[in-house]
Write a structure and sequence with these properties.
Blueprint lengths: L6 E6 L5 H13 L3 E4 L1 H4 L6 H11 L2 E6 L1 H5 L3 H13 L9 E5 L15 E2 L4 H18 L4 H111 L57 E3 L4 E4 L8 E5 L4 E2 L1 E4 L5 E5 L5 E5 L3 E2 L30 H18 L23 H9 L7
Parallel strand pairs: 1-2, 1-3, 3-4, 4-5
Antiparallel strand pairs: 6-9, 6-13, 7-8, 10-11, 11-12
Helix pairs in contact: 3-5, 8-9
Length: 461
């Protein structure tokens, strides 16, 4: 079963207003049916910042713009985000709640956002949040997002989490009891083993003492049995020695008294002694000659191949009907339109890298927004190309100069009314008026209105 989709809300803000934005982000996230998008929470390392911001804005159901002196008066990435939001808002159907301005401090409302109803967030935070919640709830109904079903799923998920935590707690308690029981059993076994060890040591000591006593008694018994026989043997030997001595003395006495005849032996001529010579032979073994050691062959080093060339695909257009203009800005007239997948040869960039210089088919140069170009290398390494002079756009076709100041003011008012009626139309629409398309991009948008308001006649102020 798939979970119902949540309401996607993009938070457009300046980096200096992070504390207030983080607080509202956490409050919207706690509702359960809102999926707020905050850059520091959603963008991962290595992602393309510009491409990711534009993709998220186009897929969002609503955009909350945090207005402060930081976001409307200072330069920064928030200005680019605001232009992307206003551009996407042109394609939303009438009646859709897409842009929600939220004042977080006292400041002036930009001209481009004065047509949207805003809410003061700094006077009464709780009341402002209730009104914001109501607007988001209305947008969820338009997007057919079932808030009750999402909340019911969240309730079931919370109950499941509580149940899982209860089961885990019961399991931990059971494991703790088992651990304590095992500890007690092991303690008893250890005490029993200790007692058995002591008893075994005492028994071994008693057995050793008994063995020593038995050995000592056996030695005593052996000595008691052998010693008398040993004494008897010594006595018999002594008697035998005395008997032999007496017998020897008697024999000598008898020999002294008997007559003896001497016998003389004459040696013969052949009886002589000659020394015998002994020759010993010493064998000397010769050592074999030392073996000759031959040097090993020297290894031959091969040259390392060098890298000769690198092929690079310079850039590819990522959207359809992208204008290539004569300069870096919407105020410059369009030259040609490229569709998605068109390969580009990139020659340079402007000072902030938001516009790229590309080579046109006829050999000339044009400018294209870097937002709609994917490059497989870092465009920050490109050379900075000076922008051509800003074109001067006059309102001569709309406001004709004459001596009647009231006619100029009336003509200016009629022009503004015509702009509002044709706002958002493009080439091919019934309400499209080429004379109102001052920047020549094929669409009546905020840039054209800005050009008119910047050229207001002095007498109409």
């Amino acid at each position: 079963m798939t979970e119902p989709r949540k309401l996607r809300v993009f938070l457009c803000h300046a980096s200096q207003d992070k504390p207030v934005v983080r607080e509202l982000y956490q409050r919207l996230l706690a509702e359960g049916w809102i999926d707020p998008w905050l850059d520091e929470e959603k963008i991962f390392l290595g992602q393309d910042w510009d491409m990711e911001i534009e993709k998220v804005v186009r897929n969002s159901d609503a955009v909350i713009i945090f207005l402060s002196n930081n976001s409307i008066t200072k330069e920064g990435y928030v200005q680019k985000e605001l232009r992307i939001v206003l551009d996407v808002a042109q394609y939303k159907p009438e009646g859709a709640i897409f842009i929600i301005p939220l004042l977080i401090e006292k400041c002036s409302i930009p001209m481009r956002l004065r047509g949207y109803h805003y809410q003061n967030y700094f006077n009464n935070v709780d009341l402002a949040y209730i009104r914001l919640y109501t607007s988001l709830e209305e947008q969820a109904k338009i997007k057919e997002i079932d808030i009750l079903e999402i909340k019911e799923n969240l309730r079931r998920q919370q109950e499941e989490i509580i149940r899982q935590e209860s089961i885990a707690r019961i399991g931990r308690d059971a494991a703790e009891r088992i651990r304590r029981d095992e500890f007690n059993i092991l303690t008893e076994q250890a005490e029993k083993l200790a007692r058995q060890k002591i008893e075994n040591e005492l028994l071994a000591e008693a057995e050793e003492r008994l063995r020593k006593a038995v050995t000592k008694k056996k030695r005593a018994d052996i000595l008691a049995f052998i010693f008398p026989k040993f004494l008897k043997t010594i006595r018999n030997l002594a008697i035998l020695c005395i008997f032999v001595a007496v017998l020897f003395g008697v024999s000598r006495s008898i020999a002294m008294w008997l007559p003896l005849k001497p016998q003389i032996t004459t040696p013969t001529a052949g009886d002589h002694y000659l020394p015998t010579s002994i020759e010993s032979t010493i064998q000397i073994s010769t050592l074999a000659p030392e073996s000759t050691i031959t040097p090993t062959e020297t290894a031959t080093l091969r040259p390392i191949p060098t890298l000769t060339s690198i092929s690079i695909i310079l850039g590819i257009v990522t959207e359809n009907s992208v204008n290539v203009r004569s300069g870096p800005g919407l105020i410059y007239p369009g030259i040609i339109k490229y569709n998605k997948g068109t390969e580009l040869t990139i020659l340079g960039q402007n000072h902030d890298g938001t516009w790229l210089v590309v080579l046109l088919p006829n050999g000339s140069q044009g400018w294209i927004s870097a937002v709609y170009v994917y490059a497989n290398f870092s465009t920050s390494d490109l050379d900075v190309v000076a922008a051509p002079p800003t074109p001067i756009i006059t309102l001569a076709p709309l406001i004709k100069e004459n001596n009647n100041n009231s006619n100029n003011c009336q003509q200016y008012t009629n022009t503004i009314n015509s702009m509002q009626s044709a706002y958002g139309s493009s080439i091919g629409d019934p309400n499209y008026d080429p004379s109102l398309d001052l920047n020549g991009d094929g669409t009546i948008n905020v840039v054209d209105i800005g050009i008119v308001t910047d050229n207001i006649p002095p007498e109409c102020n």
